[in-house]
Fold:
Amino acid sequence: VPELLEIEANRTLAEVAVGRTIAAIDAPDAWWLKEGATADLLAGALVGATLAAARRRGKLLLLDTVAGDAPGPTLGLRFGMTGRLLLDGRATDALLYSADQSIEAGRAEWDRFALEFTDGSRLVVRDPRRLGGALLDPDEDRLGPDATTVTRAQLGAALASAAPLKAALMDQGRVAGLGNLLVDEALWRAGLDPGRPARSLTADELAGLHKAIRATLRVLGRRGGSHTGDLGPMRAPGGRCPRDGAALERRTIGGRTTWSCPVHQV
Ligand SMILES: [Zn+2]
Structure:
């Protein structure tokens, strides 16, 4: 499942297409177009515009355009559970994640959306499970601060909630970009129980969590994706804490399977 690190890799791939002019939109799957977007609307807004920037907020990829000298619309792309970005048939090589070549070899019937450029190149979202989507001028402020740049104070404000710590961290309106694997890894590194009320953190614990989120993103980004955490190989029956050897605990928190250490995560 793509989390912040995978979308960031998609962003760097999309950046290669900055400067190219959109010749056509290929949107064969109306279900995949969200919040009132239609193939006609997207074509009317985007054809003739030039890709000006590839940005990211949380798990949302934002493609800014210019039309002549004026700023054009922004296309938002969501990748859901299985969405991958391909430029001219190739996924990014920025992550281990993309070592899985099956998506490139995957079927064209999974291609939900494409920008076709005047130079003949194509930027495609291939999404077998169809849980991603394309949006025109998405409201970016519905998303919380991005997890890579969130300040300690912003994180504290985001966690002013009675919800379990893990659920609050996965709420994209509070902090944007973290999913199941990144949150479990960051909480394991910080030594915090995912089931604790988010607002129960002391100032020291908040500082530790902030540091752990940054370290998780940095280290796992370098290793090759959200699945490369220290906890990753232990997310299975019989899994043991890589720090102290305790048998890991498995719970469902915030609707997601959660692995944590009952000894050092308190
Ligand atoms: Zn432990």
In short: Residues 241, 243-244, 246, 261, 263-264 surround zinc ion (CB under 6 Å). The beta strands are 22-26, 50-57, 60-67, 70-78, 84-87, 111-117, 122-126, 133-136, 249-253, 256-260. The helical segments are 4-15, 39-46, 102-105, 152-158, 165-170, 180-190, 203-223. Residues 85 and 91 are 6 Å apart (CA to CA).
